[in-house]
Structures are given as C-alpha cells and as structure tokens.
Design a protein that fits this description.
There is one protein chain. By secondary structure, the protein is an all-alpha fold. The protein has a single domain, classed as Up-down Bundle (Growth Hormone, Chain: A). It is built from 19 helices and no strands. Helix 6 packs antiparallel against helix 11 and helix 13 runs antiparallel to helix 19.
Length: 406
C-alpha cells in the first residue's frame, strides 16, 4: 500500500471504525415508536432488534478474530464493512418485523467482522499500560458516536422517515472503506500470522485462568449497559413521559460521563495501575445499581434522582473497559485477534441475554430493569474477586518458581 502524504492518528481511525457499533445501536432508538407503527408491531417487539444486533455482532467477532490472526487485519475489516453497508441499505426497504430482525442480524455480523480488529491493532502496536492508555483515547473519541447518534436519529425523524437512518449508516460504512483503504496500514505482518487451526487462539485465551476471569467480569459489567440501552426507550419515553426530542439529551448524559471517565483514566494511569482503576469502576457500578433498585421501591423514583445514578452506572465503564482490555491483552500478542474476539463475543452475547432477560421480566414498571442491572453488576464484582485471587495465586507460583531456579 502506498504511504499517504499525511497520516491520520491511529486512535482516530480506530475510533471511527469502532463507532460502527454504537451508531448502529443508538441512532435508531428514538425511532422505535415510529418503526413499530410502520411495521405493524409494538415497541417491545421492535426493541428485540437490539438483542438481535448484539447476537449478530458477537457472531461476526467470533468469526473475524481468528480470520484476522490468519490473513491479516485489513481484509477482514473491509469484508465486514461491505456486508454492513449492503445490509444497512437493504434495511431502508424492510417491510416486516421478521425482515428487520434478519437484516439487523446480517448488518451486525458485518459490523462485528470489522470492529473486532480495533483492539487487536492496538495490541499489534503497543504493550503493557500503553494498551490501556491508547484504548482509553480510542474510547474517548469514539464516544462522540453514542452521544451524537440519538440526536442525529431524532433529527432525521424530524425531516425524514426512520428508513433514512439506515441509509446514513450505509453511507458511513462506504465512507469508512474509502478512508481506511487510504490510511490504515496492515499491522499484522505475515511472519506473525497464525498458521494452525483458526480456533486454537480461543483455546489459548480460555486456558489462561486470570484472563478468563477478567473477560467474564468485563462481559458482566458491559451487559448492564446493554440493559440500559434496551430499556431506556421504555424508561424515558413511557415511564417518565419524555418526548422523542428530549430522549437524545437524556441518553447522551450517560455518554458524557463515559467520556469524562475515559479522560480521567488516561490521567490516572500515570499514578495507578489499570487493575486498581477497573476495581474502582466495578465498585461504582455496583453501588449505583444497588441505589437504583432501592429507589424503585420508594416514592423517590423521580427523573432528577434517577438520571445521575444512571450516569454513574453507565459512566463507570469508562474506568472498566479500557483497563480490563489492557490487562487481558498484555497476555496475548500472536493471537490478539482471537483474544479481542472472545472478549467481544462474551460481552455482546451477555448483553443480548441480559436484554432478553429484561424483556422477559418486563412488567411495565422500572423494577425489572433495575433488578437485571444489579444482577450484572453483582456478577462483575464476583468475577473481579475471582480474577484478583487467580492473579495473586499466579504471582505466588511465579515467585516460587523463580526462587527454585535461583
């Protein structure tokens, strides 16, 4: 590939790529009521398309991770973006709920194939604490997508129909292909590529007991955010009676806190380890989830009280995500794509299941939403404790081995 006359910063390129996920999930949230009417369905069934997307995104990642370890990052990215663009364009003509769910699944598979490579590319270039720092920079830039997506979706609804939202997503993918062909070099050279079975990388990651526990912790914490994404149209639009124009601002408040936490994380990494910072994030998430559930059982469950707690609950991921990924990825270099894919698959599968659980329990009150949120936060805290215990055990074994060698 010819070197361009100027190079965009790597965190910016990866943020633009990673933004495919939140744009696809968040941009159409304000349109769910309109989509339900157009597809002769109800908002609850249209909300299932979020879980469908998460499952498809997980499938795309589980396929894309080993593929990129074997053939390189760029071919898998472009294959995914082409599939995403075609499915998004097809969604502009969908006429039934079944068609919506099918095409959202195909769209998600393409997105998963492309996005799974972002963290792997960071691992290709960086080591140690630098992984967490660069991932925080990527996340901070990328958070402009979930912040702007509901606003953009609401604006599109004002001047056009909901189908135009998917047309914009298709155009974004086409633009991204053009930029990345020009700007993104291959970071996984042939001599590092895995020649063995494409699934061997997953076995390598799963056998690592410390990494395995951190991945489950991240998946649990992330599932709470997907519960919020799935349930937020009900909570804000129906329960609190807010308008479609107000919804993006309420939703965006959570994103601003994630951006703030990512910025603080970059600064705090100078003084504290990623493990200490992710522990603080898990504790914040658990405390806010517990407070939210207690509020649902009291007369004080009002928007001005609930909103700040939800901002803390979702915003805590700014301390959790990059630090966990940085901690896990330092163990894997040759199979960085597989490690990234496994994290993504478990995250998005867990998020889809948590969203489906909320849908099953949904009784037109906020209680099931807060119960599932506390469940995911509790699981994250439990897996964190297991990970710390495994880490201490491994450190002890290494110390004994070093002493014996001496």
């Amino acid at each position: 590939m010819t070197t361009p006359a100027f190079r965009l910063p790597l965190p910016l390129l990866l943020a633009m790529l990673t933004a495919i996920g939140p744009l696809s999930i968040d941009m159409y949230l304000p349109a769910m009521a309109a989509m339900a009417g157009s597809l002769s369905s109800d908002i609850h069934h249209v909300e299932l398309s979020v879980s469908t997307f998460l499952l498809g995104f997980a499938l795309g990642q589980i396929l894309g991770g080993p593929m990129s370890d074997r053939v390189g990052r760029r071919p898998v990215i472009f294959l995914g973006l082409v599939l995403f663009a075609i499915a998004s364009l097809a969604l502009t003509h969908v006429s039934s709920l079944d068609g919506l769910l099918l095409l959202r699944g195909l769209q998600a598979i393409g997105g998963g194939l492309a996005v799974v490579n972002s963290t792997a590319i960071v691992r290709d270039h960086f080591d140690g604490t630098d992984i967490a720092r660069v991932l925080s920079m990527v996340a901070m830039i990328m958070m402009a997508a979930p912040l702007a997506a509901p606003l953009l979706g609401s604006l599109v609804l004002t001047f056009s129909g909901w189908r135009s939202i998917f047309g914009i997503l298709s155009a974004y993918a086409a633009l991204l292909i053009a930029i990345l062909v020009w700007q993104l070099p291959e970071s996984h050279p042939p001599h590092r590529r895995v020649k063995r079975s494409p699934w061997a990388g997953y076995a390598t990651v799963l056998k690592h007991r410390v990494a395995r526990r951190y991945i489950l912790m991240l998946a649990s914490a992330y599932s709470g955010m997907f519960v919020f994404i799935t349930a937020s149209p009900y909570l804000y639009l129906e329960h609190f009676g807010q308008s479609e124009q107000t919804f993006p601002w309420l939703f965006g408040a959570n994103v601003i806190v994630i951006m703030l936490m990512n910025r603080l994380n970059i600064f705090w990494l100078r003084y504290w380890s990623p493990q200490r910072l992710l522990t603080a994030g898990i504790l914040l998430q658990f405390a806010s989830a517990l407070a939210l559930l207690m509020l649902t059982l009291s007369p004080y469950f009002k928007l001005p009280v609930v909103l700040p707690l939800l901002m803390i609950y979702v915003g805590s991921l700014g301390l959790i995500t990059a630090n966990t990924m940085g901690t896990v990825m330092q163990y894997f270099r040759e199979v960085a794509g597989s490690a990234t894919a496994l994290m993504g698959v478990i995250q998005f599968s867990g998020g889809a299941l948590a969203g489906l659980l909320w849908g099953k329990l949904h009784d037109h009150t906020p209680i099931p939403m807060m119960e599932v949120s506390l469940l995911t936060a509790s699981l994250a805290l439990i897996f964190l404790l297991f990970a710390r215990k495994a880490n201490q055990s491994e450190a002890g074994e290494n110390s004994i081995h070093a002493s014996a060698t001496d």
